[in-house]
Amino acid sequence: MSPKNVVFKKICKDKSVGVYMGKRDFVDRVDSVDPVDGVVIIDPEALQGRKVFVTLSCTFRYGRDDMDVMGIAFRRELYLSTRQVYPPLQDREKGVHTRVQAKLLRKLGDNAYPFFFEFPDNLPCSVALQPAAHDVGKQCAVEFEIQAFSAESQDAKIRKRSMVKLMLRKVQYAPEGEGVAPSVETTRDFVMSDKPLHVKASLDKEIYYHGETIKVHVNVKNDSNKNIKNIILSVDQVSTVVLYSNDAYVKAVAIEEQGDSVAPGGTLDKVYKLLPLLANNRERRGIALDGKLKHEDTNLASSSIIKEGVLKEVMGIMVSYRVMVKLIVGGMMGSSEVGLEVPFKLMHPKPDAVKEGEVEEEMEFQEFKRSYLKGMNDDEEEEGNVSGGEDMAPKEK
User: The whole model's pTM is what?
Assistant: First the structure.
């Protein structure tokens, strides 16, 4: 997640518009979402009479921007909201909603103007499907973006040199409260066997954090005359692309197979350990990942939690997890399987809250420039954007 006490800044190429934001991760609490706020700084001389607008968008991509079929692009805008920032439509002080904004306005001077957006409660969180090594262009993803630009009007053509973009993330943290520890059991009868096979699988809690080992308690009571030849456990990630096709991608992101067997009339009571990590799945296409900001690392996608009553069809990509327990049963006509699915949630813990006063006192500007990253050149910088320089922003007061 974004470092504490950092203000991100970015300036467009013609230096007419720049964006300053105190954070780029916005928390979805199911019943409410953090508002998006920041400050735009303008250069009246570079504007040459043009107006300045800020747009918040949520886009679902399922192909490269330069691809289309019969004129239909492989992207869909799930949400788009635009505000005119300059000339201001209201008193500048009335547009201030947070102490970070107020601090930025004092530091940046009279050519800085605040902006503020509220997310609707029916938008998905940032998530992407991992591309294969040979894939090029944009990946299948739900993305959020702030765009500031100068133009004669809101609908006028935007020059790339007069536009700046910042990627955002909408994230969810594990809800408070333990929930009910999941447990599933089944009984299977076999032909030519007087007694059944009984299997039970349970977890010690409902929500696990990324990087945490999952303990699966498996109890097998084999009263049948069949031989259990093997027991295989896996953590399955189920990614459902609900927006356009309702396709479901099931990927085992952790597997445990110790070769355990249970003879007829025997029992087994054992705890297995599974650790689902992106590090073990980096080369696999179609694994769902939490949305990431450019060149930052990420992790397996968190479980999707949606507000009751919201249509799943607008959620883009929904992610869920389950532990699969599979017993391989031997027989005269070949092997068969007995399986159990135990659902659980995989999420980030809620971070410690940062007091606004602390952020205000320790505010530190960070130029969001890709060429600062090792091995990157200025030519590879995001199209239409440059990092904020001291030539536009006034000296800090």
Answer: 0.78
